[in-house]
Design goal:
Elements (H helix, E strand, L loop, with lengths): L5 H14 L6 H4 L1 E4 L18 E5 L10 E5 L10 H13 L3 E6 L10 H15 L1 H4 L6 E6 L1 H11 L22 E4 L12 H8 L5 H6 L13 E6 L8 H12 L4 E6 L18 H11 L10
Parallel strand pairs: 3-4, 3-5, 5-6, 6-7, 7-8
Antiparallel strand pairs: 1-2, 2-4
Helix pairs in contact: 4-6
């Protein structure tokens, strides 16, 4: 029998506890929309888990900054921490005047690559396609991810296209490139010694193709066209080594992509907005300042 590290088992238990009750809370923060009305490509059934959705939470009137963020909760590609890495994050983004689009993507072991990436790309396209209706600037649409959701977000930010102009589906004609990324304790690499093994297993199976390991090690896929990126991690993270963020940051700098990284000394994996930690809870403020410095949000006149 395969053995698992204590940190991995604790992570699985943590995700299970925080993700279960959140399923019923989608509507409490915004409108739930299916990514594909006629059924999602590659769906294995018609249950909630088979039909990816976005929950759209728009900020109130005059506070709106015309920016939007697609939010990818974590969960090791085997669950979704929808509450503290989705709903709570949407409320924080709304407080900045930013529209939040929480993605409920499909995950393993039923759904491996490329299904989650297709869901994330569709979420970015759909947000851009609805930009006028939702009061969003189509050139200020970012993606944000936590843990395995950070891998999904960074995959969307390194594997994108400009859309298919010949598609019968109007949404598929729209670009899937995010304009910026916010990655919080992200899984970045699929390579041995760096990756989170549970996420890799759920996404790529027990014996992944070496070419896929390279393709989905996103530190290897950075180019000058990769969007500006803000990263947060802790040195103490035993589930997803900080080396994931360090490698991605170095790749961004080498490619000339604007990047900012905050590495905290202490903090276990999965802290979300860290409301009970006086140190870790400073990262949302730093993220807001970074967004402001790049023109993705505009400060209120009295700030």
């Amino acid at each position: 029998m395969k053995s698992y590290s204590l940190s991995f088992l604790l992570l699985v238990l943590f995700v299970a506890l925080i993700s279960g009750p959140a399923c019923a809370q989608d509507g409490s923060v915004g409108k739930v929309i299916k990514l594909w009305e006629g059924g999602a490509p590659g769906a294995l059934g018609d249950t909630e888990r088979d039909q990816p959705t976005i929950t759209v939470s728009l900020p109130e009137g005059e506070s709106a900054n015309r920016s939007a963020v697609v939010v990818c909760p974590g969960g090791g590609y085997g669950a979704l921490a929808f509450n503290h890495e989705g709903i709570q994050v949407a409320r924080w983004l709304n407080s900045l005047g930013v529209a939040a689009v929480i993605l409920r993507y499909r995950y393993g072991p039923q759904y491996g690559h490329p299904i989650p990436l297709g869901d994330a790309q569709r979420a970015v396209r759909m947000t851009r396609w609805h930009a006028k209706e939702w009061g969003i600037d189509p050139d200020r649409i970012g993606i944000m991810g936590f843990s395995a959701g950070g891998h999904l977000a960074s995959t969307a930010g390194t594997h994108f296209d400009s859309g298919n102009p010949d598609s019968e589906d109007e949404i598929d004609r729209v670009s899937s490139r995010p304009d910026f990324m916010i990655l919080i304790y992200p899984v970045i690499s699929m390579l041995d010694g760096v990756t989170h093994e549970g996420s890799r297993r759920n996404l790529l199976g027990e014996h992944p193709d070496p070419e896929l390991l390279w393709l989905l090690s996103n530190e290897k896929q950075v180019s000058p066209n990769t969007p500006p990126t803000f990263l947060v991690h802790t040195t103490e993270d035993e589930a997803v080594p900080v080396e994931n963020s360090l490698r991605f940051y170095r790749a961004l700098v080498e490619a000339g992509v604007p990047a900012e990284m905050h590495v905290y000394e202490r903090g276990r994996h999965g802290f979300g907005l860290a409301p009970g930690d006086s140190v870790l809870s400073t990262w949302p403020k730093h993220a807001a300042m970074w967004l402001e410095s790049h023109g993705f949000i505009i400060p209120a006149p009295n700030e």
